[in-house]
Amino acid sequence: MESHERLILENKAWAEEITSKTPDYFKKLAMGQTPKHLWIGCSDSRVPANKITNSNPGDIFVHRNIANMVVHTDFNFLSVLQYAVEELKVENIIVCGHYGCGGVKAALSSQNMGLLNKWIRNIKDVIYHHKDDLKGIEGDEKVDKLVELNVKEQAGNLARTSIVQKAWKYRDKPLNVLGWVFDTGTGLIKEVAKMDKDTEIDKIYKYDF
Q: Which residue, 38, 59, 195, 198, has most beta carbons within 10 Å?
């Protein structure tokens, strides 16, 4: 049996197990979604949002890319963000990185990775702006420190979008921007950043509404 065929069989077994316990589970699931959280995570296969938070389908709206980046020219990401904030009315936007991230490791190297260079460049900018924070740190410790710094920077990038600022100004419902790091060695999440409508943003990044 090929690996993709096993996935189909596992799906069938999962669906049967769910319906045996809750017969109308999928009927309710098909009625729509009302997630409270937008998850911006790394594409790494070890960090599935629902699994590591013990959440159910419908609880988290998910966008993933290499190294959980918030890039202001990424229209795919921006479309997800706008839909989650303005249509789904999520309460929390979570940027979740993870220790030992391959994308972060790549950014610390000088290896030429072709097209991937363009994406990794965004992390290299984080390295450049945090030279002092990374000074004197080497190996895995340096990677993990950069993982945390990158999550903080991406949370800041979220706060600098017009989408989030508009929601902070006009929405009655609170909107939090959270920066988390998942430890693949322990299974635990560490919070490294938290922002809300009272967060100070440099005036160059502020928008008038």
A: 38
